[in-house]
Amino acid sequence: MTKQLAGWILAAVMIAVAAGCSSGGSMGPSPTPTASQSFQQELNRELQLWPVLVACLAQHGMIPHKYLDSRWYQHGRVIRNKYWTMWWSSYNGLPVKVNGTEEHLADAARHAAEQGTWPAKLCGPIPSPGAAGS
Length: 134
Description:
The protein is mostly helical. The chain has a domain at 37-127. Helices cover 52% and strands 9% of the residues. Strand 1 and strand 2 form a beta hairpin.
């Protein structure tokens, strides 16, 4: 084999290896989520649980009626709109008693998402990830 042919074969092998490494094909186990992906998943879960938790607590009188607004709370359900967003921004620190512990609404939702402290006895089973909010 000539040096030139050996060089071409080596170049072809290197190109094939490089293409295989960068193709994203299944050349091994799928990558684990990065820290930022995990954080985003937790945040998305909290965003999903906020309106469901508020609706449940409101239905059981644990959020005083004076804090509810018919522009975003109707027939026991939270309607996700700009009024809901404005209310949540103002009142996510509202203290509520969940599972015997007083905490802020935002903390209750975060704990439910991260630590599994959803008030199932009061609100029923925790919504599955990806399920409609409320």
